[in-house]
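Hi R.,

Here's the chain you asked about this morning:
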Amino acid sequence: MANFFSDNKDLQFHLGHPMMRKIVELKERGFAEKDLYDYAPQNFEDAMDSYRKVLEIAGEVCGDVIAPNAEGVDHEGPKVVNDHVVYAEGTSRNLEAITAAGLGGLTLPRKYDGLNFPLVCFVMANEMVARADAGFENIWGLQDCAETLNEFASEEIKQQFLPWVSAGATCAMDLTEPDAGSDLGAVMLKATWSEERQTWLLNGVKRFITNGDGEVNLVLARTEEGTTDARGLSMLVYDKRDGGVKVRRIENKLGIKGSPTCELVFTNAPAQLVGDRKMGLIKYVMSLMNAARLGIGAQSVGLCEAAYREALKYAHERAQFGKPIIQFAAISEMLSNMKAKLQGARALLYETTRFVEVYKQYNHIAHERSLEPAERQEQKFYNRLADGFTPLVKLFSSEYANQLAYDAIQIHGGSGFMKDYPCERLYRDARIMNIYEGTSQLQVVAAINAVTKGTFLEQIKRYEEGEYAAEMQPVVEKLKALRAKYEEMVARVEALDKECAGYKEFHSRRLVETAGHIIIPFLLARQAGECADYADSAKIYCKLAAGKIEEAYSYVMNSPTEDVALFKQVEAETL
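And here is the predicted structure, written out as tokens:
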């Protein structure tokens, strides 16, 4: 029997992070429910024991059910029957197993039949599911839509939908339209209030909707007549059982083929308003998107884990010139770099998750009582870190998913190009990860403020002040030197941007990636102080980072303002 939690020491390490004590205390409100629910923890140790047991159950379902079904689901895929989605047979079995294991509503409050687990546990479960089948993670992981309802919806709506999600109902977020991709402010699906039916009615088309025929759908729609921008958009929730929505088609995709990506037609579909009118994009979708980006981070790291394991296994088994290919320097270097990127992306993922967790818990507490001044300061502190780190983790993890899937095929050689090995599917699945929920380019746009406002630099300096094992001191000193170069780059870009509009935008990716290339090895070096298993990855990632930063530094410090116009010349080119 395979267990994707028990066989992963890295996940177990992150579950034991010292900050978990604070997270559990906030999530459990001082264990206020210990006498209300028989499954509520009595104390911190009891809570951690519950988390481990449930994650082991999730790991078993992933290893014994979802992973064995992945190839069959990839070949069969979903289909449209009578205007609705019919999942592949393996997907249906996955959903049955997940539901039977009680893994719905993982983070939802107990009063809605949820488990009230921290976000860290949900992200870990997402990662394991993605390692088993990245396409199925898109279906199961969308239960985080319920968190948006939990945070912003009325109590009546919560009582209607959240227990359903806890019982296994699938979700979707219906945002994109044929003429509104990344520009969600251009959404035109109309929501009209019906006096006769005393409900909102939705009319229009949505496209590229992941799991679009889900049972609980959050829909971005235009409620304000005569508007064309974000100020006319609201968030509504639609119950599939109420009808009014047809699946026009399922997209024929390169990868994640088990996840139905739908085009939907709404015809007087009844829906309920979530929160306040006009705040759909400005407030609620931003919350949804940040959660989705963290989800894609988990999905990407899960795929990195799968790709690394496939490559490592094959490198040990495949012999050439009388010895296993792992003994060749080119292969061992490639695998070492893959491992460092995997562990680095995971370190960034769980650091970000902890920041988001604390910030979100203070948000929930603020609805229950007034925050103390110290709590408000902490809320702002973690909010700032969450805003900067969330796009950073989506950027790095999704790019690494593509790189590790590519390298896994390379290590397999010609065999990796065949459908006989899972790495071919992993390669196709990975390609979407740096595209959906905001492309890598849009993650840079989201993260650049953390560069210019000093969020990343301040956090890097906090890492510098930490205590590190003696073996890590050379890594720390190297990172301090790279941080100084990062400061030079930022100063030059900000100065020249005042002379030439667009100069900062031109170099923004170099700046954001440089920050990430310093943050990640600091996290690995910190982990190496607690567990020597991370020492090699910290050293290797530092070498990778130094090369990337030196290249970016040379480019930025030698880049004249004329570069902005030079690279815009292509705009005039037509065919």
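One quick note: The CA atoms of residues 365 and 371 lie 7 Å apart.

Cheers,
M.
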